[in-house]
């Protein structure tokens, strides 16, 4: 049995391939920025908590000069790349939609250079990260006890089931629309709940 089969033990759909993530696109890590270089404004320094909140505006920042130096040493995410957590909420993934520069926390956030890949669609990869098979594989490949970490080499070895790039785009677009609909309905639900709460408070006030 191959290493991939050990962590991803099921039959691939017809015309789909099982590949390692690192064979489909370059997977990158970054450096950890020391606290003394953190700023209140500048280039967003993205941590695992930011990915979990799906917020790339950043709570911490670094100077543009420091960003340029670190980017020259390690590289930095570009628009269209997929960022995913190697710590915290491991495997949580989002697409970098920013054309402005960002830098990610080394060891805590990894990224797939989808912007430079012709074999993998960004939205498909984000959808793949939440499938049970990939979640299970990440669990097997992650190191540590109570506090697990999903590091660079295991991320490169992560087995991914992929159809053709055209089918990936169709699947990715479908799940993207589904996610948008869920978000829309959640907002509507929250709006209805807020309205009902307001009505209840008005009635309670009038009864006093």
Describe the protein.
- By secondary structure, the chain is α+β, with helices and mostly antiparallel strands.
- The protein folds into two domains: 17-162, Adenine-n6-DNA-methyltransferase TaqI, Chain A, domain 2 (Alpha-Beta Complex), CATH 3.90.220.20; 164-207.
- It is 43% helix and 14% strand.
- The protein is built from eight helices and nine strands.
- It has helices spanning 3-7, 21-24, 48-52, 64-74, 122-128, 132-141, 152-156, 165-207; strands at 17-20, 27-28, 43-46, 60-62, 82-85, 93-95, 103-104, 109-112, 159-162.
- Strands 2-8-5-6 form a four-stranded antiparallel beta sheet. Strands 4-3-7 form a three-stranded mixed beta sheet. It has a two-stranded antiparallel ribbon with strand order 1-9.
- A hairpin with a 7-residue loop joins β5 and β6.
- α5 crosses α8.
- It is globular, with a radius of gyration of 20 Å.
Q: What characteristics describe this protein?
A:
208 residues, alpha+beta, Adenine-n6-DNA-methyltransferase TaqI, Chain A, domain 2, 2 domains, 4-stranded antiparallel β-sheet, 3-stranded mixed β-sheet, 43% helix, 14% strand, globular, Type I restriction-modification system specificity subunit, Restrct_endonuc_typeI_TRD, restriction system, DNA binding
């Amino acid at each position: 049995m191959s290493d991939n089969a050990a962590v991803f033990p099921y039959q691939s759909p017809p015309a789909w391939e099982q590949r390692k993530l690192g064979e489909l696109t370059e997977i990158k890590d970054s450096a950890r920025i020391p606290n003394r270089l953190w700023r209140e404004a500048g280039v967003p320094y993205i941590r695992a908590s930011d990915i979990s909140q799906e917020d790339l505006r950043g709570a911490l920042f670094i100077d543009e000069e420091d960003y340029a130096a670190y980017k020259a040493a390690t590289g930095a995410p570009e628009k269209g790349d997929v960022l995913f957590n190697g710590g915290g909420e491991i495997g949580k993934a989002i697409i970098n939609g920013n054309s402005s520069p960002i830098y990610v926390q080394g060891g805590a956030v990894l990224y797939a250079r989808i912007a430079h890949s012709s074999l993998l669609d960004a939205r498909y990869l984000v959808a793949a990260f939440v499938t049970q098979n990939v979640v299970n594989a990440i669990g097997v490949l992650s190191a540590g006890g109570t506090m697990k970490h999903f590091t660079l080499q295991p991320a490169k070895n992560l087995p991914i089931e992929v159809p053709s790039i055209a089918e990936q785009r169709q699947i990715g677009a479908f799940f993207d629309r589904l996610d948008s609909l869920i978000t829309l309905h959640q907002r509507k639900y929250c709006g209805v709940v807020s309205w009902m709460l307001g009505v209840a408070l008005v009635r309670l006030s009038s009864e006093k």
